[in-house]
Amino acid sequence: MHGALGRGQAWYDIDRYATLKFHLPCNRVTSKELMKTSPISEELDLLQSLVNLVHHARIIELGCGSADVSRKLLALYPSCQITGLEVDERQHVKNLLNPMQGLQFVQAGAQSIPFRADHFDLALMLKSLHHVPLDQMGQALSEVHRVLRPEGMLYVSEPVFDGALNEVMRLFHDEELVRAAALRAIQEAVCSGAWEQLSETLFETPVHFRDFAEFEKRLIDITYVTHRLDAGTLKRVRDRFEAHMTADGAHFSRPMRVNLLRKR
């Protein structure tokens, strides 16, 4: 029995999570310990609580997408200088057409960062590590280590493979393997001695869609990967999604994990 939960909290299957996370000698956990997450609607709030952004003003965001978090960060900390790396050419062009003071964009991947060593104070990977090719995740983390100054920090935010939204997504885009690989890459990097893990935070973030058309636009018709759904698959996705529809749209909670590392 897990007991009663407060609003916005959720229990996750610790045995399943542990099999993905803790089969490394440098990790010690109690495998039966339950993990209760807290709701966070704005990830920047969590970032600010974990990292002193005034003292980590030179920032690189890897796989920045449209750089929404970086733009919000700059609005609060205008003295920061942020570099957004994006490998997808179409998204990079969109970014260049939407400039912001203090934010520069570079088209490149995390596995080959075109900056000198010891250049940045903080690196952000916001739901991007699992998009790095499987055989290059370790290289990407090594590159981040290279471009961070001594005791620079790496904030890695990754979705946990669980939850109702995940059950819709996996019908056409199953990320179980790549998410597990991203988690293992982080833990192997820590075990290598190159990084000190300062914290691991589990939380859930609300996700809302007005209707299936918005879901399709945001998660199927995206630029960095091509989803070609046949009529049958599209119907199954729509049916599973619409089971969550209410009068004001579909509401989901996405479970997330943040690992905060410091360069040794």
Going by CATH, the homologous superfamily would be Vaccinia Virus protein VP39
Radius of gyration: 19 Å
CATH architecture: 3-Layer(aba) Sandwich
Mean pLDDT: 87
**Shape label:** globular
Largest sheet: 9 strands, mixed
Given this structure, which CATH class is correct? Alpha Beta
Write the layout of secondary structure elements.
Layout: H1 14-21, E1 38-39, H2 43-50, E2 58-62, H3 68-76, E3 81-85, H4 89-96, E4 103-106, E5 120-126, H5 137-147, E6 148-159, H6 164-169, H7 176-191, E7 195-209, H8 212-220, H9 231-242, E8 245-246, E9 249-263
Parallel strand pairs: 1-7, 2-3, 2-5, 3-4, 5-6
Antiparallel strand pairs: 6-9, 7-9, 8-9
Helix pairs in contact: 5-7
What does this 3D model show about the protein?
This protein is α/β, with parallel strands linked by helices and 264 residues long. It has a single domain, classed as Rossmann fold. The chain is built from nine helices and nine strands. The protein has helices at residues 14-21, 43-50, 68-76, 89-96, 137-147, 164-169, 176-191, 212-220, 231-242; strands spanning 38-39, 58-62, 81-85, 103-106, 120-126, 148-159, 195-209, 245-246, 249-263. Strands 1, 2, 3, 4, 5, 6, 7, 8 and 9 form a nine-stranded mixed sheet that branches. β5, α5 and β6 (148-159) form a beta-alpha-beta unit. α5 (137-147) crosses α7. The longest helix has 16 residues, at 176-191. The chain starts with 13 loop residues before the first helix and ends with a strand. Mean pLDDT is 87; it is low at 1-23 and 28-35.
